[in-house]
Amino acid sequence: MNEMKTMSPTILLVEDEVVAAEMLTTFLELNNFNVISIQDGQIALDLLRSTKLPIDLAILDIMVPGVDGKELCSYIRKHPQFGQIPVIFLTAKDQEQDEIMGLNLGADDYIPKPASLNLILAHVKTLLRRRGIQPDEELRFGDIRIELSSGLVQVAENPVDLTLREMKILELLFRSPKRVFSRQEILEHISDDEKHVFDRTIDAHIKNLRLKLGKSGQIIKTYRGLGYGLDRSYVLDTNSR
Q1: Domain spanning 4-130 has what CATH number?
Q2: 97 phi and psi, to 5 degrees?
């Protein structure tokens, strides 16, 4: 997380179902949230005890190994730094008594599983909005800045003219800096704008994007046999200068 300069809200997700956690993490990151995803309650508790990271909201599965979601919620409510953050219980349980129990522990919301990703996102945004927090409209990586509302892209404060597809590819990479995207995934992301886009067209878009970003284009790395992603080591080195 240190490599990404953004004021996006940070969400603590404690969910022991790996696939569900990965899907929700990716979806929230694509919607401009930072996500700390943990699958064990004890590890989450240790993090809360030791971290000074800003956490703006917690999504807790009640039934997780180690320390369960109820204990985590109770700890959060007593914590001097995190005591006021919104807490959502996300659990397979759907009985009324479980919902009442969660709310009595100090949870702000309760979403029974399975729940759609869009529904969870709506609850997250609503709770953050009540606290005056909204996802940032700016993404930064190294000396590259994307202003989402206007589509402005700058390198070292100098504007760069990108096509719509180049902009969408760059935004996709910035929103999920830890991921490597296959050509097919990138293709699906931009295909709404061009019906006749072919797999190898992605290589041309990436090449043009790198050229337009100049030296900063090195941030886009080719992962042989996998696809494209951000070179986080390059970003860390750039930010340390």
Answers
A1: 3.40.50.2300
A2: -65, -30
Q: Is 236 helix (H, G, I), strand (E, B) or coil?
A: helix
**Model pTM?**
0.58
pLDDT tens digits, 107-118: 888 888 888 888
Specify the CATH class of 138-239 in words.
Answer: mainly alpha
Return the domain boundaries, the chain: 4-130, 138-239
Rounded CA-CA distance 93/237 in Å is 46
Q: What tens digit of pLDDT does each residue of 4-27 get?
A: 334 578 899 999 889 989 989 988
Distance of alpha carbon 208 from the chain centroid: 26
What's the mean pLDDT in 199-216? Answer: 89
CA distances from 72 to 17, 68, 90, 148 (A): 17, 6, 13, 35
